[in-house]
Amino acid sequence: MIRDHDTIAAPATAAGGALAVIRISGEEALRICDRIFRGREPLAAAAGYTVHYGEIVDDGRVLDDVLVTVFRAPRSYTGEDAAEISCHGSQYIVSEILRLLTASGARMAGPGEFTIRAYLAGKLDLSQAEAVADMIASSSRAAHALASTQMRGGYSEELESLREKLLNLTSLLELELDFSEEDVEFADRTALRATMQRIAAEIDRLRSSFALGNAIREGVAVAIAGAPNVGKSTLISIISAARPKIANYHFTTLTPVLGVVRVGPEQSFVCADIPGLIEGAAEGVGLGHDFLRHVERCRLLLHVVDVSGCEGRDPKADFEQINHELAGFSAELADRPQIVLGNKCDIASPEQVEEFKQYVEAKGLTFLPISAATRQGVDNLPALVYNRLKDLPPVKVYEAEYKRPDKNAQPTRPFTVERTGDHEFTVDAPWLERILAGTNVEDYESLQYFQTQLGDSGILDELVAQGVEEEDTIKIGEYEFDYLY
User: Fold this and answer.
1) I need a surface site. Which of 112, 221, 333, 463 has the fewest CB within 10 A?
2) Edge to edge, what strands does the sheet with 473-476 contain?
3) What is the pLDDT of residues 8-42, one digit of tens each?
4) What torsion do the CA atoms of 230, 235, 236, 242 make, to the nearest 10 degrees?
5) Distance CA 343, CA 139 (A)
6) Can you say whether the dihedral through the CA atoms of 92, 95, 99, 105 is positive or negative?
């Protein structure tokens, strides 16, 4: 991907906003910018951390008024000379600036290439580099906090501390082994055992934090849902290491509680206790929308119902009310697989349990009577859930579709398409050849940008109009491609 740290360029902001930022980094970054930027002074002579107003010029034509921020090596994100061009957010303007930059000597950056350069320059370690993508993709306060901590070196510091503790422990153990016959004791055996236990506990905590971090980023596998005060918090505290605050009144917990449920040495899943949903949650009553959003990407629901009706409530009515709230928020969520847990069966009569079991199973759902307070039926629950998850597909995540811009609203970029032989077409477009010269055809994202330019410029439409067929040869300058529909 990296070619001797040549100069790279890429948009740094998503399409669709009023403003856009284009980042360029490399030894020639500022000199390349000077070839298309007209301001009071050359950027190559500017100091770092300065902002310059000027114009982007294309062969004498002013394309846009811009602000260019200059960063000097080694005090930049990548450790190289870099610049960020702030322009108007029109996709045409962004594409044209990128075209001018690639024609002036830059090339399109590959996915994550700016961060790779930051890592190679010692600006970030691997943990922090990974956190950059998580920060960009964060869609909740928890995901943002997780990525922010990791990006600022929080986990790197923990791992370094753990490494030092392990090295100290190893040194003491080696000394004990080397002098075992000399009857010399370098460390108290009880203290050594305690140290090993503390290190093991820290490793286990980090392992659990990895599972929880994935849950925050990608969604929890299992959500425990139900009416308020039916025993959800007690259940998650038993099957995982989570310790939610439990109070004996309705709608008390204000944040979901995550817990890692261990099934075996290498088998686990993340479970979330979603605070009690009240009537009208799907319309936003209470904190309904916030809580339902946590459930939305789970793969399996554990629906807890107080089968005893000890508070004068009807378990069937509670069951239907929660399903009604789930359906009101999302039709897909209502269709999510469920295991119905009849909690407090230790204080319910056998007739109550049997009646509710028949009611649930008549709907085609799995029913399991449990008592979170006495652990009745709870010990087998993790294995049951884990095996059920293995048969379930991942939750679909829908991404916004790219909307092709209206070519009639853009200034025309000249090109000609000519049939130059049987199953052969030649495209004459000097501006496109400059883009192609700066495109890494082995990189998906870079190639995708080039293909977008083919489509948005009208070249593909013209090829179709001239009768191009599957596997016809397309010539653009020195390059040849097979046309694939």
Assistant:
1) 112
2) 416-421, 424-428, 473-476, 479-482
3) 999 999 888 899 999 999 999 999 999 999 999 99
4) 110
5) 34
6) positive
